[in-house]
Design brief:
It is a single chain. This protein has 315 residues and is an alpha/beta fold. It has two domains: 114 residues, Rossmann fold (3-Layer(aba) Sandwich), CATH 3.40.50; 182 residues, Rossmann fold. It has twelve helices and eleven strands. It has a six-stranded parallel β-sheet, with helices on both faces. Strands 2-1-3-4-5 form a five-stranded parallel β-sheet. Strand 3, helix 3 and strand 4 form a beta-alpha-beta unit.
Length: 315
């Protein structure tokens, strides 16, 4: 079995590829440009990848390809219709990053709400030692207990965030595709009006693209904390940047962007140094433990396919 990994750099050089190497002849590329793709797929049975776009042209060039093993939960970079036409199985990895993304979500909220960077800098700069005052209480911060936390998207990650939010004493509101009587389910507009903190965990689809738009930003509470760890295009990024600059948002935490990495003409570039902002480089999914789970499941998916089993198939 010939296995090719197209963008090993995306999973980090601290993760062993031994589970893949144990399955067959493994060829590793750290990254793959579009013009390199056809040649790298030409002779392989299995392709393992994360961010590379596998389109109809690529499938046509891959004469021996049997499995596309996605190193992620999302698979919108795979042309599933073309995969079916060419008889290629496509597998993803559901659920592996839930604890990692929940942790990053909470870290963003706690840092923004408590102004931790400002307090840390006061000590690190030497001013705390030099000024001779035992404490510093500005910028003013508030407790999360008693605040309303709105969770947009209530899959495993959203549910995990909701559980931690309740443990911190927050009132929980949930906007989900299928409302449930067991949760505090509301529509998106009600959530935007009532929440003090809004965290986004919904997949990107036609119905969620631009979900947080200019109109919904306008009805949010002043000083709301907005966190997006889902997909960049779930929000109107230009409108979000304007809301931050105008003072409507109290804080903005984002780990995902419509263009990654975002360029100097992206709306967020102008606000990246604002102290009310916490931007991270699409790393919420990537704890060591999560990446280890991801690779192990990819290997299991490949093994299952060649054993005649159907596991984590999305084609």
């Amino acid at each position: 079995m010939k296995i090719v990994i197209l963008d090993a750099a995306t999973i980090g050089d601290d993760i062993s590829l031994a589970p893949l190497a144990a399955l067959g002849e493994l060829t590793v590329y750290q990254s793959t440009k579009p013009e390199e793709l056809a040649a790298r797929l030409a002779d392989c049975d299995v392709v393992v990848q994360n961010k590379v776009r596998i389109d109809r042209t690529a499938f046509a060039a891959a004469k021996h390809l049997k499995v596309v093993a996605e190193l992620a939960t999302g698979y919108d970079n795979i042309d599933l219709e073309a995969a079916r036409e060419h008889g290629v199985a496509v597998c993803n990895v559901p659920g592996y990053s839930t604890p990692s993304v929940v942790q990053l979500t909470m870290a963003m909220v706690l840092s923004l709400a408590t102004h931790l960077p400002a307090y840390r800098e006061h000590v690190a700069s030497g001013r705390y030692s030099a000024e001779g005052v035992a404490n510093k209480l500005t910028p003013v911060y508030h407790e999360l207990a008693g605040k309303t936390w709105g969770v947009v998207g209530y899959g495993d990650i959203g549910r995990g965030v909701g559980e931690v939010a309740k443990a911190l004493g927050c009132r929980l509101l949930v906007c989900r595709k299928t409302p449930s009587a067991e949760e505090y389910c509301v529509d998106i507009d009600t959530l935007c009006r009532e929440a003090d903190i809004i965290s986004i965990h919904t997949p990107l689809s036609d119905s969620t693209r631009g979900l947080i738009n200019r109109e919904r930003l306008a009805i949010m509470k002043k000083d709301v904390l907005l966190i997006n760890v889902a997909r960049g295009a779930v929000t109107d990024e230009a409108a979000v940047a304007e809301a931050l600059q105008s003072g409507r948002l109290g804080g903005l935490g984002v780990d995902v962007y419509s263009t990654e990495p975002f360029s100097t003409d992206h709306p967020f570039y102008a606000i990246k140094d604002d102290p009310r902002v916490c931007f991270t480089p699409h790393m919420a999914w990537g704890s060591f433990e999560a990446r280890t789970r991801c690779l192990a499941t990819v290997a299991d998916n490949i093994r299952a396919f060649f054993a005649g089993e159907r596991q984590n198939r999305v084609d």
